[in-house]
Amino acid sequence: MSGATGTNAESARYVQFNARTIGQEDRDTRTGEWIAQWIGYGPTFLRLGGFGLASIALWMMFGTAVKKY
Asked: Is the pTM of this model over 0.70?
């Protein structure tokens, strides 16, 4: 009987570990999602694209000055 209890205890620890790991992965992937849900996915996409375009414009304006260093 003690062998069966040990097996069940090990199974329970394994299940608890996997539940914590899966829960952590879910939290990690949703870190910035609340911002997109709050603002809206379309406007968030446009803002991120705007940041990308602004960085390209800054690089085109100041790239030669930065490349000297």
From this structure: no
Longest dimension (CA), the chain: 77
- Cα–Cα dist 37/44, whole Å: 9
Q: pLDDT tens for residues 47-61?
A: 999 999 999 999 999
Its sign, for the CA torsion 47, 67, 69, 61, is negative
Tell the burial category of 36 from Cβ atoms under 10 Å away from its Cβ (0-12, 13-18, 19+): middle
Residues 38 and 63 in one domain: yes
Q: Are residues 27 and 38 in the same domain?
A: no
